[in-house]
Structure formats: structure tokens, C-alpha cells
Write a structure and sequence with these properties.
single chain; 16-stranded mixed sheet; 1% helix; 5-stranded antiparallel sheet; Immunoglobulin-like; 643 residues
């Protein structure tokens, strides 16, 4: 079959013969036809690859052609091509491309390939004050393998150690290794100081530890442990940065300059014990290292002393204030046992009956004793009143009680005065206890008996002589109410200033004698009987309250304000105490007087059968002035009562 030599078609290459004009599969040669046949030339496309140095220099490269289906083209290697500051990195399909085309290369059309020029960075070295051979520069192409920096071998600087390369002369952070520069760069040697740590035994003995070196930025130094070092009476406590320092440097230790460290020697103190007259095994001495944990002192267990209790340890044989435990001595010291006396408190029933309380013990400095309450103890006609420190004492000792020696306490049996209302009615007065102070006896106000009045208290049921009030009993006893017939009194008033514009209204007279609680006589003892009488020249209404003081009926009164009339409820409350100068006069009457707004009053309580008019101005021992009669009128009789 014809080889196609001499045949051509612009832009194509002869590819064999096909059985049709559009066939692209060449027939085999030799060829055996089976009929008349026309064979058609096959024309395959031819692609041209042109090269552009893209700013580089060197011989322009001849184009290459590729026939589809043929063998891929091996691209030019770039040998002999160059560009200042760059390196050839392959061929791209555009002038700005930086991705190299595959090699071998299979074009799909006519194409121009452009040289790729990658930047080349130079790494230079500076010894930065060090000595040795400066390492040669190194180059790096972006996208290439990072550069292994120079190791610094053979470089040195007095008192320093090589620590890498920094991007400035004062930098102390080493660049990463391998290193990927992004521009031309000079790297400077980093020189870290090397510090020496020396040791001084500071008066101790043993082998001085060898100096240690520390490189700035390196691992902190583990300081010497002090093993094998000693000093009499002291204990090794670390290393300080001065001979008098007592604060140990931390270990591991990071020096910031050459330094000498001095051994710290803490004193060791001995705490010895002295039983101070006690018995038992003397505790073993204890040692304390200054700055260490305080010592837990011996508890005193197993130690004793007759009649005393262990109270701790003092720093002198006569001390009684225990030192604190845990204890921190400041020198060698002997501690002395403290023995606190134990006092016994015994009880004596002092004539009473019941079970004698068991003795109690008190340790000096301890909690005060709660004394026996006396429960279950008794004595005929007496009441338990506490405990005294003598058999005749009547002042009870306070409880809780702190004795100062062995002591016997005696029961106090108080005198008790009880009351019997002797067939009267009302509440029996509460019993009173006599403790050396005369008793104010019950007034009898709250008791009564029909037809008779209360006249005091007697020592027997049928007694008529009342005891003194206040009353001092000699022994426990019962007092009996005395009931007697009432005595009739007439209450008479006289004044120097009465006029005829007074009232005779019996209701106002009644108001004049109201007590603070209600009707006339409400607070007066049973047997009170009021008899109204004509009233003359009464201008100021007088409030009267009956009371018993000494052996005579005495009368309070209060002047109202300057009003000429009083409504019910306006009268002031009676006084609660009695004040009169003649309360000891033993006559048949009693005088009470006062002044109010220049109106002078005399109020008399006169027993029936006596005449008030016989007391005249000449009896100055009774009357305080001469104005005893009222303009020739008779005395003013206000009313009568029985008491």
C-alpha cells in the first residue's frame, strides 16, 4: 500500500489510508481487497508547542510538534536558561502561571509555554559578637524544602553559650529549624549568658558542693541538698543569697547572674521537763528547729501530786500560767509542771434533816462549783436559805462557788413568818422569810370579817395585842389576824378663808371623799360606815384616804386644783406614802394640815365623846397658828366614819 511519502496537507500529517473519506482508522498494509475499492488518505491534526523565556535569558528554544494519539512530548528542561535572582521552575501555559505543566506533555491545541521563574531567597549569617568561621549563605526557593540552619558548631563567645539564630541582633527567640524565609534575610547568633552558682558553707562543715552553671532560658538548677553538711547545734535549712539570710532559695533555682549561695543554719532548741515536786516518769526532752512545726507538749498523763491536779507546763518552777501547746521555744528551755490545788467542799446540815450532800472538789483555776440546791433537806419551822461558811452565818454563799481552801458549808435555816386570817375572809397573805431585816407586815387590806375591823396581827389566835410593824421575829411563827369593834370618828375641817358661797350638796361632799377606785370607802377596811352630816362653808373638797400607821388611824388628803367644783373621776389619786409630823401623838385625835393657794385647812379625826372645839389657839403644841375658828361659826363637821 502507498506509504504517503510526498503527500501533505497544511497543518496535518499523513496518517495512513481509510476505506471512507471520514474514516480515521488506517487499513493494515499489506492490504488484501475483496472488490474494487477507493482508499482515502487520513490526515491527523499536528499541534505546535512554542516556548517563551518569560523575561529569562538564554537560547530561544525550537518549537515542538505533537500529533494527537502520538507519544506525549518531553518538554525542554530549561538548561542554559536563567533570570537574575530567580530559578527556572518549569513551564506554564500563561506568562503569570506558577504551576508547571506536566512533563511529558500532551497538548490539545497549538500552545505557547512560558518559563516559570521562582524567587530565590538568600540566608546570610552574622556571629553577633561571637568568634569562629561565619557560616556560608544558604539559598531557598519558595515552595522548596525548608533550610536546615547552621548548627553553630565551632562558634563561641566568652561567658555565653550559642542558643540558635534570631532575625535581629538583639533577638533572643531562635528561628525555627528547618527555616523557611520569605525574603532575603540575615540571621544573628543568639548568645545566652551562662551563670555560675557557687556554694558557701557559712560556718558549717563538710565538703563544699561543686559550682553549678545555668544557661539563661535553660532548665532551672536543682540546688545541692545539703547532705553531709553540718553545724553544731543547728540544722541545715537550705541556701540563701546572703550570709545572714534565713529565707531559702527555691529549688530548682533560676539565677539571673553569677551568685554565691550561703548555707542556712537554723538553731535546734531542746525542751526539757521538770515534774516540779510531782511523781511519775519525767517526759523525754523534745527538740524544735527554728521555723519548723511547733511542739505538742507532753499531756501530763501518768503524772501526779498529792492534793493537786496537773495544770500544764510553765516556764518557771513558781509559774501558774501554762504555756500554749503546740509550743514554739526561742531557746533551750526547761518547763515545770503546774500543780493546781484541789479543794474539798463539805456540807453540814446545821441541825436540819435529810441526806447530807456528798463533798465536792474544786481544782484551782477550774470551773466554779454549782452548790447543792438543798432539795430534800428540811428543819421544823424553818426554810432552807442556802449555805454559809459558818454555822451561825445567815448570808448565803453565791453559787457557782469558787473555794480558796478546803471548806465546810453550813445549811442556813431562815425564820419564816406565816399568816392566819383567823376566821376572816379573803386571801391569806404570803409567808415572809426573815433574813436579818425587819419585816413589813401585811396591811390586812384584802381581808375582812363581818361586824368587826382588822386591828393588826397577834402571836396567838386569841391575842389582842398587835405586834410591832416593822416586825423582827426571834423564830419561825404564825401571826393571827386581830378582829375588834370599830371606833367611830368624826371628820372635821376648819379654815381661815371659807365664805358663804359654799355648797351643801351631799353628792359633792361624797365626791370629796372618793378614793381612786370607786365609791366612798372602797379602799377602807371592812367596818367602814359613813354618816352624812350638814355641811357649811365647804369651798375646797378634800379627798381623804384612811390608813394605818403606828397605832393610830392617820389620814391622807390632797388638795385639788383651784377649781371650785369637781366632777366624778377628777379627784387625784391618793398618795402611796404617808408624811406627817405628829404621827406619834397619843391623844384622841390626829392632825393633818397643808396649804394650797393661801387657803389653809385643818382636818381632824376625833373619836366620839371628844369635842373638837376644846382645842383652841392657846394649844400651840397642836395648832400651827391662831386662826382656829371661822368668824364665830362652829367647826365644820364633814362626816362620820367607823374604824
Amino acid at each position: 500500500m502507498n506509504s504517503g511519502n510526498g503527500l501533505s496537507k497544511q497543518g496535518f500529517i499523513f496518517g495512513g489510508w481509510a476505506a471512507s473519506a471520514v474514516g480515521n482508522t488506517p487499513l493494515n498494509s499489506p492490504y488484501t481487497p475483496t472488490a474494487n475499492v477507493t482508499l482515502y488518505a487520513i490526515w491527523n491534526t499536528v499541534y505546535t508547542i512554542s516556548y517563551d523565556l518569560n523575561g529569562g535569558t538564554g537560547n530561544t528554544l525550537a518549537p515542538q510538534t505533537y500529533t494527537p494519539g502520538g507519544t506525549a512530548i518531553t518538554l525542554n528542561s530549561g538548561a542554559g536558561l536563567s533570570k537574575q535572582g530567580f530559578i527556572f521552575a518549569g513551564w506554564a501555559d500563561s506568562a503569570v502561571g506558577n504551576t508547571p505543566a506536566a512533563n511529558p506533555y500532551t497538548p490539545t491545541a497549538n500552545v505557547t509555554l512560558y518559563a516559570i521563574w521562582n524567587t530565590v531567597y538568600t540566608i546570610s549569617y552574622d556571629l553577633n559578637g561571637g568568634t569562629g568561621n561565619t557560616p556560608p549563605p544558604q539559598t531557598y526557593t519558595p515552595g522548596g524544602t525548608a533550610i536546615a540552619l547552621n548548627s553553630g558548631a565551632g562558634l563561641s563567645k566568652q561567658g555565653f553559650i550559642f542558643a540558635g539564630w534570631a532575625d535581629s541582633a538583639v533577638g533572643n527567640t531562635p528561628a525555627a529549624n528547618p527555616y523557611t524565609p520569605t525574603a532575603n534575610v540575615t540571621l544573628y547568633a543568639i548568645w545566652n549568658p551562662v551563670y555560675t552558682v557557687s556554694y558557701d558553707l557559712n560556718g558549717g562543715s563538710g565538703n563544699t558542693p561543686a559550682p553549678q552553671t545555668y544557661t539563661q532560658g535553660g532548665t532551672a538548677i536543682a540546688l545541692n541538698s545539703g547532705a553531709g553538711l553540718s553545724k553544731q547545734g543547728f540544722i541545715f535549712a537550705g541556701w540563701a543569697d546572703s550570709a545572714v539570710g534565713n529565707t531559702p532559695a527555691a529549688s530548682p533555682y533560676t539565677p539571673t547572674a553569677n551568685v554565691t549561695l550561703y548555707a542556712i543554719w537554723n538553731p535546734v532548741y531542746t525542751v526539757s521537763y521538770d515534774l516540779n515536786g510531782g511523781s511519775g516518769n519525767t517526759p523525754t526532752p523534745q527538740t524544735y528547729t527554728q521555723g519548723g512545726t511547733a511542739i505538742a507538749l507532753n499531756s501530763g498523763a501518768g503524772l501526779s501530786k498529792q492534793g493537786s491536779a496537773f495544770g500544764g507546763w510553765a516556764d518557771s518552777a513558781v509559774g501558774n500560767t501554762p504555756v500554749a501547746s503546740p509550743y514554739t521555744p526561742t531557746a533551750n528551755v526547761t518547763l515545770y509542771a503546774i500543780w493546781n490545788p484541789i479543794y474539798t467542799v463539805s456540807y453540814d446540815l446545821n441541825g436540819g434533816s435529810g441526806n447530807t450532800p456528798p463533798p465536792q472538789t474544786y481544782t484551782q483555776g477550774g470551773t466554779a462549783i454549782a452548790l447543792n440546791s438543798g432539795a430534800g433537806l428540811s428543819k421544823q419551822g424553818s426554810a432552807f436559805g442556802g449555805w454559809a461558811d459558818s454555822a451561825v452565818g445567815n448570808t448565803p454563799i453565791a453559787s457557782p462557788y469558787t473555794p480558796t481552801a478546803n471548806v465546810t458549808l453550813y445549811a442556813i435555816w431562815s425564820i419564816v413568818v406565816t399568816y392566819n386570817i383567823n376566821s376572816g375572809t379573803g386571801p391569806t397573805p404570803v409567808a415572809q422569810t426573815y433574813n436579818g431585816v425587819a419585816l413589813i407586815l401585811n396591811s390586812g387590806r384584802d381581808i375582812s370579817k363581818p361586824g368587826v375591823v382588822f386591828q393588826g396581827w397577834a402571836t396567838t389566835q386569841n391575842g389582842t395585842a398587835s405586834v410591832d410593824n416593822p416586825y423582827t421575829p426571834a423564830s419561825s411563827l404564825t401571826l393571827y389576824a386581830i378582829w375588834g369593834d370599830p371606833v367611830i370618828f368624826t371628820l372635821t375641817a376648819k379654815s381661815t378663808s371659807f365664805t358663804d358661797n359654799s355648797t351643801t350638796d351631799p353628792m359633792k361632799l361624797r365626791h370629796a371623799f372618793r378614793t381612786s377606785g370607786g365609791e366612798v370607802g372602797e379602799n377602807i377596811s371592812p367596818g367602814f360606815d359613813w354618816a352624812q352630816a350638814p355641811v357649811k362653808f365647804v369651798r375646797r373638797y378634800i379627798m381623804v384616804c384612811l390608813d394605818m400607821v403606828v397605832n393610830l388611824p392617820l389620814f391622807y388628803y390632797e388638795m385639788p386644783t383651784s377649781r371650785t367644783g369637781l366632777n366624778e373621776g377628777d379627784i387625784p389619786r391618793p398618795p402611796t406614802e404617808f408624811h406627817v409630823g405628829e404621827n406619834n401623838y397619843q391623844g384622841p385625835w390626829q392632825l393633818i394640815s397643808t396649804n394650797f393657794h393661801n387657803y389653809q385647812f385643818r382636818v381632824y379625826a376625833v373619836k366620839d365623846g371628844y369635842d373638837i372645839s376644846r382645842f383652841n389657839a392657846s394649844q400651840t403644841n397642836v395648832m400651827s397658828n391662831n386662826a382656829d375658828y371661822i368668824m364665830g361659826y362652829s367647826n365644820i363637821v364633814i362626816g362620820k366614819f367607823k374604824y
